[in-house]
Amino acid sequence: MVACSHKAVITVLVTSTAILHSPSMESAETLTGTLGASGRLDKVLAETSGLSRERVKALIAAGKVEVAGGVMTSPSSKVEENCPYIIHLPPPDDPQASPQDIPLTIVFEDEYLIVVDKPAGMVVHPAAGNPDGTLVNALLHHCAGQLSGIGGVARPGIVHRIDKDTSGLLVVAKTDAAHEGLARQFADHSIERLYYALVYGVPNPAQGRIEARIGRSDSDRKKMAVLPKESSRGKHAVTHYNTVEVMDRCALVECRLETGRTHQVRVHLASIGHALLGDPVYGRANARFRPLLERLGFARQALHAAVLGFVHPVTGEKLRFESGIPSDMRELIDEAGHSNR
User: Fold this and answer.
1) In CATH, what class is 6-88?
2) Cβ-contact 150, 173 below 8 angstroms
3) Is 252 within 8 Å of 196 (Cβ atoms)?
């Protein structure tokens, strides 16, 4: 068992400014924090850091993981809750994204930032399985390389993301000052974000607030899940929803995000029995709509980032952008047919 004293925790907190149970990036290659539970090292570290368990095992084997000041060599080592950890992340195998002449829908642009209306199907930044054809590749061409370097060469300028198969608005930083200013607004939840989601069933009540922690699923590490309130894993998440249009056994729902977690809208709505139509991960319950989805060729979750509002990080101007529901989602809404509530 790797034990850690109170003194050891205090030392790490002072030197790395880590926050209990909340990993932070000291640099592009170092992840630090404190363990959120006791138990087997690879399991606890995966749950605490958000990395996959297989990735954690590989990093331990490579000598890239330290707990309570010591280098760990075995994934099965027993560790205690609140022990400080450091993960030394190697750079991506192929971090250098190349410029590509890919059309973009630009909503706003100045010398500091750019707001893009991303189409469904476009990945935000290069990663395994998607080495090119991404938003970053398109931005490098459009901006001639003038993007913030804070995200590293693998994702220059990227302050936040939306899923590959989610359409809508995204802001990207051109300068480091803009990146830092936008990141602060995302961190303090002052960014306005509104999504439209087409969901299975009709929410009752028609509007409400979903507050539930989101973290990695115990049964499938590729999925996110709602976690118990008392859990030390995952992150606090809040979604406000309002039903704006009712159809035959489905509804168009407006979601305002108080926080921004991975798959937040998809997971929260599925947790109250209203999974998104077309969602291949969280929407298995809405098989009734499969024939319609197949007929229309609608092969994504019905989710659109429609509103993005923030204070310009350099000029201080209040900015707010809107994007209409895209044609594929509108066609699905029209075909679903209206009904009286």
Assistant:
1) alpha beta
2) yes
3) yes
C-alpha 6/C-alpha 169 separation (Å) is 45
Q: Tell me the pLDDT tens digit for each residue of 60-90.
A: 988 999 999 899 999 999 999 999 999 988 7
List 163, 165, 279, 328, catalytic entry? 163
- For the record, the structure tokens of 238 come out as 């809040």
Backbone angles phi, psi at 265, to 5 degrees: -60, -45
With tokens 């990146």, the residue in question is: 179
Q: Residue 91: exposed, middle, or buried by beta-carbon count in 10 A (0-12, 13-18, 19+)?
A: exposed
The domain made up of 192-336 is a member of CATH 3.30.2350.10: yes
- 106-187: what fold? Pseudouridine synthase (3.30.2350)
Average pLDDT value over all residues in the chain: 86
pTM beyond 0.90, yes or no: no
CA distance 138 to 192: 25
CA dist 183 and 25 (Å) reads: 13
Whether 163 is catalytic: yes
249, 288 in Cβ contact below 8 A? yes
Any idea which residue has 């395994």 for tokens? 128
Annotated domain spans of the chain: 6-88, 106-187, 192-336
For helices 41-49 and 53-61, give the axis angle rounded to 10 degrees.
Answer: 120
- 179-192 pLDDT tens trace: 999 999 998 999 99
* Same topology between domain 106-187 and domain 192-336: yes
The residues with which 224 forms a beta bridge, in sequence order, are: 216
